Description:
There is one protein chain. This protein is an alpha/beta fold. The chain is 29% helix and 30% strand. Strand 2 (21-30), helix 2 and strand 3 form a beta-alpha-beta unit. It starts with a strand and ends with a helix.
Amino acid sequence: MISVNLPMSSQDVMKLRAGDRLLLNGRVLTARDRAHRFLLEEFFEKMKEATVYHCGPIIKGSDVIAAGPTTSMRMSPYTPELIERYGIRAIIGKGGMDDKVLKAIRGKAVYLSAIGGAAVTYAKSMMLRGVYKEEFGMPEAIWEFEVKDFPVIVTMDAHGRSLHREVMEASRAEMNKLLY
Length: 180
C-alpha cells in the first residue's frame, strides 16, 4: 500500500500506475450528477485541484454513517471539462469511466476505484469538514471530508492505462472463444 497525501501534486499523479493500491489522507469533495452540472455552470473555488469522490453519503448531524462509491460512468460526459476547469488530479468512484475521460486524465489525473458495498467501512475513515449546495439534497450536495487511510486502487492512470478496459477486452476475447 502506498500512502498518498491529498491534494496530489502533478508529480504524485505521474508516479502512480494502474494496479497500485493506495491509502489516501487529506481532503476529498463529493460530487454526483447535480453537483457536476453545477460545477460547469458556476465556478466553485473549493474544487480547485481537488480529489473528487463520486459518492452520495448518509450523514446524521456531523457523523458520517455511510459513504460508499457510486457508479462513475454517468459522470463521464462532464468529467473532461471539469478536469480542465478545476485541475482535478484524482477521481474516486466505482466501475471506471469512458475512453474520453481516459484521454482527459492522460498526464493530469488518475481514476481510483473504491469498493462497492463498503460504505460503512469507508465512513469510519472520514471526518466531515463541510457541506455546500445543501439545497441539492443529501446525496447530491457537495460534501467535504478529511480522510485517513482511505483505501483505493488506481484503475485508470495518467499514462493511458485502464484496468477496466483491459478486463472488458479479456472478457470479450474469452466470450468469443466460447461462442465461435
